[in-house]
Structures are given as C-alpha cells and as structure tokens.
Design goal:
alpha+beta; Thrombin, subunit H; Pdz3 Domain; 21% helix; EC 3.4.21.107; hydrolase
C-alpha cells in the first residue's frame, strides 16, 4: 500500500513539473513579430576599395637612370580591387542609414542591399572614428526605417536581438541578453568615448554596423565589435548605445563631423593603496595624473593629484567613466566637478572645452617634469637632460639614475630613467624640492608618488619603513 501511494505521488509530481516547465517555456519571448517587422530596414553593405599604387621615392637630387626608367616609372596597370562587407540600417524614410566607420572607411564604392533584394549605391555623409560610426545616404525615399531609442534605459539581463549579415550570410537574426553596460574599451589611439553595451548575442564578422533591438523593436545599440580568440562569437559582443548614435547622427548631418567635450587631462585608475593614501574609504574616481597647461581643466582650477569623484550629475566610479561623461557634454558647458584634494572634498565649476571632430585637430597631450638628488627612498637622482625635457615637454622634477633594489622606491616600481614630479601632495620642481620633501616623508605611511616613464605619467604609492 505504501509503495502504491509513493508511486502515485511520484507520478503526480512528475506531471506537475512537466506542466511547470511547459508553462515557463511559454513565457519566453516570441521574436518572430519583431524580426518580421524590423528586418526590411536592415541592409547588407558591400564595399569595394581599389588598392593604391605605390610610388618609388628617390633621394633629393637623384634621377632614375635611363636604362631602368621603363622598369621603375609608374605604368597604367589595372588596380586590384578589395571587397568587404558589413551591416547597417535605415534611420529615416529618405535614405539615411547608419553603420560602423570601419565598415566603409577607405571604400571607393558602397552598395547596400535590402532584404527584398533592392540595391542602391550609397554616399558617405560623415564618419566618426572615435565612436566607430558612419552616416550614409542613398537616393531614394519611402524606405523602411528603424527608430533609435532616445534614452539608455536598457538593463542587465534584458532580452535583445541582433540582425545582420555574419560571414556574408544575409539577414541572420540572433538573440541573447544584456551582460553589462558602460564597458570601457579604449581604441588604438587610447581614446575611450563610448560606454559600450556588452551582450551574449552571437555577433560575428559581417554583423558590424547592424542594429541591436529591445523587445519593443527600438534600436538600443549599433553592433560594433566582439572579443574572440577564434575569429567567431564566444558570447562577448559590444554595441554602441543609441544615445551616442543619436548625438553622432545629429552632428554628422549638421556639419559632417562630431565635436566632443574635452578637459585636457591624463587620468589613471585608483587602486586600494592609492585610495588609502589620498584619504578615500574605497577605490573610486579618476586620478588626474597630468594636465594640459592651457586646457579647460587647468584653467578651471583642477590640479594634478585631484581625484574626480563626480562630473556634473554622474558619479565617477572608475577612471573609464570620466571620458564617457566628458565626451557627451556639449563644449563650452560649465559643470560642477567634485574632487578629493589632499584628503578633503571640493567642488569646482569646470568649463568644458572642445575636442574637434577632425582627428588632426585633437590637442597634443603636454607633459610636465624635471631636476636632481638621493637617499631615503633608495634613489640617486639628478637634473633631467635637456633632450629629455624637450622630448617629453618637461618643466620640473628629478631624473632617477639609480635604484636600490631593496629600497622603498623599488617596491613602488620606480626604475632608472623615471622622472619624479610629485611626492605626497608636494610638486617636485627641483632637486632641493625633492630633498626637502623626501626627508619630511613619514615612516610606515602610504604616500602617493607621481612620475613619468617614457613620457607617460603614473601614480603609485610608496612606503618608507
């Protein structure tokens, strides 16, 4: 009797679990209506680039000998064509479409193809390498188009869908969830103006420039890049948020370039030791390691060694948050900036400058440092050579010539050739400055030290035992 009752209980439990599983599966999103509605506005982009002929350059005053002239002079040979592909999508009925800059960069011809197999030649209205976005236009109207979400209110765990042409496979759809938001991924130029959306949506080569949708069918991001060891998707894909895309589109339409806010600072991350030495309870903010002398930050009163904790209304949790906030701020806007300075919080009104949309116009980063001494830190120092000063644009500090491998400086990672510009909260302009500050440093306390290595500023902490 007991066995029969137990058997009936197991059967009932199994049926109940099966019902629950089926019910749960019915709660999963049905992507079919979304894909059917949005895919007509997604395009496949094919580009053609003609390989440039290289020219032979001779030293001044030299000419090609007659016997070799027919071999070395340029000839009218056919140029080899290179083809590539990507994705994009219309953002208006009159033919404006959005894609990645790297999809169309250097292209001589751009052809877009819709899902209904119509094809159009496109022209470039403007490109923005810093955000990896490009605005194109085709000569047609009454085209299907997609709406960019006005606000970045997407949340981690939210369902998203991508449509594009991975590996040339036309109009493929994939789905996943948002894995993270606000990801900082510096470019090859070490610029970081895009707070990327990270997803586990399958994005592959050819998906670049395609839309990332929420379940309402609005574009929340433009698929831009992936992290991969194989060349294919491993579930780490990154999209440019729609708010960034809207700002870029507006400026490219208006003036063909994108201008951003600029502070004129070099920053670094704050680790636990630096946080302790600067009087913070936990690592947070962006540490100002360098200032452009005539830049907006310096002119507004920011100092090297300040830790920026809040910019306008945005909390700066890590150094990567600051470029996102500054770049999105209209130039010539004055904003409140909360900093930690010498253990105390201080709010400054900072007028944001302009980072031109023309990359060649970007202001050069200027360094600061220079001059001589030795000892408690385990160092031998001397004035900075004039050639180094000129090369690194140094104006004060001391050059490290020897490092005691058992000393405090060695523990802090200081190496010969570094130029020390700050000890504790004191700026080091001369050897006398260095000697005075070095002798007064307290024992057994972590203090910040700022130095330049190969022209790049860095903060560390140092402790004299």
């Amino acid at each position: 009797m007991r066995a029969a009752s137990f058997f009936r209980f197991v059967c009932v439990l199994t049926v109940a679990l099966a019902i629950d599983v089926n019910a749960a599966s019915y709660n999963l999103p049905d992507f079919r209506p979304l894909i059917e509605k949005t895919s007509p506005a997604v395009v496949k982009i094919n580009t053609t680039t003609k390989a440039r002929q290289s020219e032979i350059e001779l030293p001044p005053g030299h000419q090609i000998p007659d016997i070799f002239r027919h071999l070395l002079e340029p000839r009218d040979l056919p140029r080899r064509e290179m083809h590539s592909m990507g994705s994009g999508f219309f953002i208006s009925a009159d033919g404006y479409l959005l894609t990645n800059n790297h999809v169309v960069e250097d292209a001589d011809q751009i052809v877009v193809r819709l899902v209904d197999r119509r094809e159009y030649k496109a022209i470039v209205i403007g490109r923005d390498p810093r955000s990896d976005l490009a605005l194109l236009k085709v000569d047609e109207d009454k085209l299907p188009y997609l709406e960019l979400a006005a606000k970045d209110d997407i949340q981690i765990g939210e369902w998203v869908v991508a449509i594009g042409s991975p590996f040339g496979l036309d109009f493929s759809a994939s789905a996943g969830i948002v894995s993270a938001i606000g990801r900082s991924i510096p470019t090859e130029r070490n610029e970081n103006y895009v707070p990327f959306i990270q997803t586990d949506v399958a994005i592959n080569p050819g998906n670049s420039g395609g839309p990332l949708f929420n379940l309402d069918g609005k574009v929340v991001g433009v698929n831009s890049q992936i992290y991969t060891r194989s060349g294919g998707s491993i579930g780490l894909s990154f999209a440019i948020p729609s708010s960034v895309a809207l700002n870029v589109v507006s400026q490219l339409k208006e003036k063909g370039r994108v201008d951003r806010g600029w502070l004129g600072v070099v920053i670094q991350e704050v680790d636990k030791d630096l946080a302790d030495s600067f009087g913070l309870k936990k690592p947070a903010g962006a540490l100002v390691a360098q200032l452009e002398p005539t830049g907006p930050a310096a002119m507004s009163g920011l100092l090297v060694g300040d830790i920026i904790l809040r910019f306008d209304d945005q909390e700066i949790l890590s150094s990567g948050d600051l470029p996102h906030a500054v770049g999105a701020t209209p130039p010539d806007t004055e904003v409140p900036v909360l900093v930690m300075r010498k253990g105390k919080r201080k709010t400054l009104d900072v007028k944001v400058g302009r980072l031109s949309g023309h990359e060649s116009d970007a202001p050069a980063q200027v360094l600061a440092d220079g001059n001589v001494v030795t000892d408690r830190l385990g160092l031998v120092v001397e004035p900075v050579d004039a050639t180094v000063e000129e090369k690194w644009h140094l104006v004060g500090g001391v050059l490290v010539t020897q490092v005691d491998p058992q000393g405090a400086a060695a523990d802090a990672g200081i190496s010969p050739g570094d130029v020390i510009a700050q000890l504790g909260f004191e700026q080091i302009a001369t050897v006398d400055d260095y000697t005075r500050v070095m002798k007064a440093l307290p024992a057994d306390d972590l203090v910040p030290i700022r130095f330049f290595r190969d022209g790049s500023p860095t903060f560390r902490t140092i402790r004299i035992e």
